[in-house]
Amino acid sequence: xSLLLGAAITLGILGMVFGIGLAIASDKFAVKVDPxxxxxxxxxxxxxxxxxxxxxxxxFAQAVVEGKAPVSGCTxxxxxxxxxxxxxxxxxxxxxxxxxxxxxCHARGVKNKFTYNGVxxxxxxxxxxxxxLGCDYGxxxxxxxxxxCKFEAMYMGKDGLPKVIExxxxxxxxxxxxxxxxxxxxxxISKMVHVRxxxxxxxxxxxxxxxxxxxxxxxxxxICPYDAVHVQNNLAVIDYHKCTSCGKCVEVCxxxxxxxYAHERSRDKQAVLI
Amino acid sequence: xxxxxxxxxxxxxxxxxxxxxxxxxxxDRKEVTPLLPKTVYLFMSQHIGAPAKPMVKKxxxxxxxxxxxxxxxxxSANVHASVSGKVVDVIPWPHPVTGMKxxxxxxxxxxxxxxxxxxxxxSDIDSISPEEIKQRIxxxxxxxxxxxxxxxxxxxxxxKDKTIDTIVMNGAECEPFLTCDYRLMMDKPHEIIQGxxxxxxxxxxxxxxxxxxxxxxxxxxxxxxIVSNDPNIRIDLLEVxxxxxxxxxxxxxxxxxxxxxxxxxxxxxAIVVNVGTAFAVYEAVKFKKPLIQRxxxxxxxxxxxxxxxxxxxxxxxxxxxxxxxxTPDVNKIIFGGPMMGxxxxxxxxxxxxxxxxxxxxxxxxxxxxxxxxxxCGRCVDSCPYGLNPSELSIxxxxxxxxxxxxxxxxxxxxxxxxxxxxxxxxxxxxxxxFAKAEIAKxxxxx
Lengths: 274, 446
Prior knowledge:
The complex is a heterodimer of chains A (274) and B (446). Chain A is α+β, with helices and mostly antiparallel strands. In chain A, 38% of the residues lie in helices and 11% in strands. Chain A contains 11 helices and 8 strands. Chain A has helices at residues 2-28, 35-43, 56-65, 78-89, 122-127, 144-148, 174-178, 203-209, 219-223, 248-252, 261-273, and strands at 99-103, 154-156, 162-164, 184-188, 193-195, 229-232, 235-238, 258-260. In chain A, the strands form 4 sheets. Chain A has a two-stranded antiparallel sheet with strand order 1-4. A two-stranded antiparallel ribbon of chain A has the order 2-3. In chain A, helix 2 packs across helix 3 (56-65) and helix 2 runs antiparallel to helix 4 (78-89). Chain A starts with a helix and ends with a helix. With 446 residues, chain B is α/β, with parallel strands linked by helices. Chain B has 4 domains: 6-28 and 121-287, NADH-ubiquinone oxidoreductase 51kDa subunit (Rossmann fold, 3-Layer(aba) Sandwich); 39-109, CATH 2.40.50; 292-362, Ubiquitin-like (UB roll) (Roll); 378-445, no CATH class. In chain B, 27% of the residues lie in helices and 18% in strands. In chain B, a hairpin with a 6-residue loop joins strand 14 (332-335) and strand 15 (342-343). In chain B, helix 4 (189-203) crosses helix 7 and helix 10 (389-397) crosses helix 13. The radius of gyration of chain B is 21 Å and the shape is globular. The chains are: A alpha+beta (274), B alpha/beta (446). The A-B interface holds A 113-115, 117-119, 121, 123-124, 127-132, 136 and B 94, 98-101, 343-346, 367-368, 397, 399, 427, 430-431, 433-434, 437-438.
């Protein structure tokens, strides 16, 4: 009995000593954390995608509190999260338009230069002889962008090109970053008219390779009432700040390189449903 | 594998023994008169380092040996016109090594084949100063002709705190199928030794060591006769094994010195010079001839007449294939040997560069399907750098580039032993090349 009692007393005293020690230490060596960091972290999506340019969500929360990142910096959470973060920080945020990823290639009927039998990754394929595709600028179609998407917002279509499910797209830009041919652009969702080609080959060469390529005929440049389309390096480029998506260039484009994305959108949606 | 007989010859740990090295196809096929192409395509980047700056423009008339690309920066090399003629254009052309388009000077040849002014002058090489030797090598645009194409004049400019005591000459030619170095050694042995002596003089280095693989015993005896009265030049036979001619393996075998795969041979006081480079040095210093031609082995089962050709730089491959009587059902063309060579995307665009030692034409190239790693460990056994290719291929496939770095991916020299020996036919070297390219991209960003 005395053995039990002795043990209990000893442990009791030890417990008290450590308890008091810990209580003093927690008060004296306390690390002061801004409570706003935790509360911001709670409202963030938690995907740790890094699209904001910070090392993950907690990094972003800290940067916001330190004033190093804007409250609307989380592209994934968009307006809803921006408002919540702004509330915590006690500032106001203006409504920003949502952006989505658009694949700027709709190559059809492009022949392969050679049989590729290597690693199934666009970046690896691009290293071998500049890619197996007949076009040096077009989509290789091995799905590296689809693999990179953390939000399951992309899939490979039946035509061998990646498709974006816009409802899920958060404009984080991961797909654009991994594409070795820089074919994916992040554009405001209201912009409907896109040049879906990145070929810098001269018109005659480009047309031989791909029936949908930009041949730099400058028809779009001539008709655009807003001075938004310009041909640079044998490729039409749209300035999205000026473009109003009027669709006049779509009508004159002889190769149907410039398209009205509205039609494409409804078609893509159907494909998802099937 | 386990019953491998230990050879008495000098060698290294690891490596592979290809069953048929294919060298008998072209061993005794001497190069005929130089092939003169109608048009040559001279890349401004035929070496490791910064591309040369084009010195000519469309419409210019150039002569054979005239400087058309001037070196830019420390690691770079000159480019000279390989034929006399008219510059048709200076445009980007698909590079046979990188596959990307790279600026090239296109020259249409005229009948006249005389040397440009200031070239083709015989000089007395006994009285020439070391500085002069280096200047001529730099002017001639000589690069490592073993395949790595590192500018030779840079190699001959070691940092001040490093002393070079031995020049190692690589006569191993370990790549299967290639015999261009063998032919050169058989036909120009005196010139090669002269070139080696010039390199030794340039660095003020007294000793040289030549390594020759056992399958070239005739060359060994020939060289032995030439240098029999010179105690400073040693010659040794090496075991026939790939990659015996790589810098690390050659220095380990001949001098028994080791250094890290990320270091250069000058860390252990040695410099490796290929026999082709030594010959080019001799030509440049003695005759003031820039590097405008080299021997190329055209071989493989896709050609009726496999042969060694003396080829001007920038010759279209089509011409070579026609001369070697190519069969119509060819499905693979490799620049270089089967181990480290680079498959070509198109026959029409491919042209030779300084580093092209061979063109392997295959008729029945297999299309392997790769499988999961079966953990047999053969790649680990064969890796001459002591890496774990199996682990590397797995982490690279998973795109875990940080793990690849932890597994010393940067020490891999892409020799191809692992891919060759892998029974699951995993594209190990391709995965490693891909990961290295991605790591380089990330480093540029940060």
